[in-house]
Amino acid sequence: MEGEKKNTLLFPNLLWQLVQHYREAKVIHVILNNFSIHSTQQVRVSLATVKGQRIQIHFLPLYCADHNRIERLWPDMYSSVTRNHRCHTMPELMIEVKYWLRKRNRRQLKSLSA
After folding, report:
1. Which end of the chain is more exposed for a tag (fewer CB within 10 A), N or C?
2. For residues 97 and 99, what is the distance between their CA atoms, to the nearest angstrom?
3. What is residue 79's DSSP assignment?
């Protein structure tokens, strides 16, 4: 999900996209950290809907970087892309982030196949 900033609708919108994308799945498991936008009233309302009941939320311990692989990615992305960037807008920065992620994923795939 992309947005100009983190807000209360960003996460429910992601949940909606998951339900739309995985129409055939009986249950969609979502593993989350304890960021406040993951447990808002709007999230609870979304999960209470018929389609939302297909989503099973699993919260990680309060801070558990060893079990949350994405936590190991953020420092690298920050040092490579977002720190000292010269982008003037969020869309420009998102282009840089997506490019970095694609490049990183290609490297990961190559190392797995080697």
Report:
1. C
2. 5
3. I
> pLDDT for 55-108, tens place per residue?
999 887 776 666 667 777 888 888 889 888 889 988 899 899 999 999 988 888
| DSSP secondary structure letter of residue 88 | S
Neighbours of 108 (CB within 10 A): 10
33 to each of 9, 60, 61, 70, 86, how far by Cα in Å? 17, 5, 7, 10, 30
**Residue at 10: amino acid letter:** L
Quick one: which of 36, 20, 40, 39 has its CA closest to 28? 20
- The pTM (predicted TM-score) of the whole model is 0.57
Could you give the CA distance from residue 63 to residue 65 in angstroms, rounded to a whole number? 6
Model pLDDT, residue 65: 63
